[in-house]
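Let's inspect one such protein example.
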Amino acid sequence: MIETGFLFSGQLAETVGMGRDFFESDPEARGLFDRTSARCGRDLERILFEGPAEALHENLAAQAGVYLVSTLAARALEENGMRPGATAGYSLGNYAALVAAQAVSYEDALEVLIAVWRETERLGIRGSMGAVVGARREAVEEVCADLRDRGRPVWIGNVNASTQFVLTGDSGAVDEALALLTPKSLTVLPLPMSWPIHSTLMSPVAEAIAPVVAACSSIRDPAVPYYGPDGKRARTGERVRELLATEFIYPTLWNETYEAMVADGFRSFFEVGPGDMLSKMSRWIDRTTVCRPAGSLAAIRAAAASASASDSLDRA
């Protein structure tokens, strides 16, 4: 068995066609597709494989789809001889990371995911997010703080790397912050998100889903080391329950999470799920590490071969 860090993709990693190879090659994968679709009230087979992109990017379809495909990718990696030495998730990816760490069942994490979607929609919470690349953190924090002082709620929702951030908050405030940061950054980019995830604007959702999280009987201490969105290991079931209930309120400090795993000896990672965003992001954080995309059977087989060759060289 080759051990490496498993990093799980977040929302916006979804693409039409993702997961088809798992579905077509594995009856158990087809069963998980069916059960997830039934619980979500979405035909994920049709949406993921046929689109259109607008249907796939709808919040519940995108989130459930990425969670499902990431879980199937993790299972395929293990079937190819690679189990996680540790796990971490980027925002939405925390659900699959916790499942892979054996800290919660797939079904219970799905219930929480659906509850967050249901209550956010019921409460009518809306906002937006935007990326800022190539800016000093102090400059970004200053712009956000100045806007909040003027009643314009916007925060750093994700710290991807030392000069790469995602803003979150009220749509108008995010737009204004991006405009103010344009001359101070390499680039800014509005993101196609309709919720102010990782902000206190989501606090009413945490209150609303508390009974759902309390009812999750499968939550337990992680059997595999799991690094939370605050850059620290979550070692107890109590902390896992707290993260499931509130993770979407607080910032994702991805750079600190990645750096903590590296400090604990992990140098090789798989991006478990669709896309290659985390693999690219890893190069912004630590170029001495390697992160390989592993969101399809072809990518998993290639990653397995590459990791096996690297492991053989290390032993030689």
